[in-house]
């Protein structure tokens, strides 16, 4: 199992739009596997490539919550939202790049996503509930957007200042 360090906000790599995947290489397959390991270890339900410093349009997710249900690790490359519901849902979001900060964010309750799988095959699926929220949160990462970008400038600044302090403290502790 290989864990990759998760970048913490603020970091310029979390603000950059990512490049489409043009070739499915062994390095990309390895990155996807490491991202799933890193996501489960965190623990989280999603992880986008820029969060591990890879500026490619790729994310992983598994929103199965019931321990009696089998896991559903998913790898989505070049994802596109092709339909969004008018119906909206509020979910208290967190982010592995902004630990210990949460905020209620409103998004479409359901989305249909089209993507390429690791085998190069095309897929399309409609996601609801946590799956829909997670897919939209991860696709925002691919466009250099974080959930705090939906908050007021004041709230965003407050969180950013706290994160700067956390990063300073961690650097001093050598973590
Ligand atoms: O992108 C990330 O930072 C991961 C993030 C994705 C996310 C999904 C849904 C709503 C908001 C954010 C997380 O996984 S945050 C952790 C989390 O939501 C969670 C962790 C363990 C169990 C259940 C949920
Ligand atoms: Zn996130």
Task: Indicate the topology.
Elements: H1 26-41, E1 46-48, E2 58-61, E3 74-84, E4 88-93, E5 103-108, E6 110-116, E7 122-128, H2 129-142, H3 153-173
Bound molecules: ligand K1U and zinc ion (ZN).
The site of zinc ion has 5 residues, from helix 2.
In short:
The chain has 175 residues and is an alpha+beta fold. 29% of the residues lie in helices and 25% in strands. The protein contains three helices and seven strands, in the order αβββββββαα.
Give me the secondary-structure category: alpha+beta
Task: Provide the residue-averaged pLDDT.
Answer: 97
Look up the CATH topology.
Answer: Peptide Deformylase
State the CATH architecture.
Alpha-Beta Complex
Give the number of domains.
1
Radius of gyration: 16 Å
Q: What is the total tally of β strands? A: 7
Helix-strand sequence: HEEEEEEEHH
- How much β-strand is present in the residues? 25-35%
Question: Widest sheet: strand order?
Answer: 1-2-3-6-7
Please mark out the parts with pLDDT under 50 across 5 or more consecutive residues, or reply none.
none
């Amino acid at each position: 199992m290989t864990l990759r360090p998760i970048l913490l906000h603020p970091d310029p790599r979390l603000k950059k739009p990512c490049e489409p995947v043009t070739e499915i290489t062994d390095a990309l397959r390895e990155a996807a596997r490491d991202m799933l390991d890193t996501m489960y270890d965190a623990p989280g339900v999603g992880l986008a490539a820029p969060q591990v410093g890879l500026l490619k349009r790729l994310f992983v997710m598994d929103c199965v919550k019931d321990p009696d249900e089998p896991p559903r690790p998913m790898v989505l490359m070049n994802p596109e939202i092709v339909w969004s519901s008018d119906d909206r849902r509020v979910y208290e979001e967190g982010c592995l790049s902004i630990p210990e900060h949460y905020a209620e964010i409103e998004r479409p309750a359901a989305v249909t996503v089209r993507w390429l799988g690791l085998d190069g095959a095309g897929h399309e699926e409609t996601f609801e509930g946590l799956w829909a929220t997670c897919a939209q949160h991860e696709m925002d990462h691919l466009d250099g957007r974080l959930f705090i970008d939906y908050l007021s400038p004041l709230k965003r600044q407050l969180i950013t200042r706290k994160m700067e302090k956390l990063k300073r403290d961690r650097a001093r502790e050598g973590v």
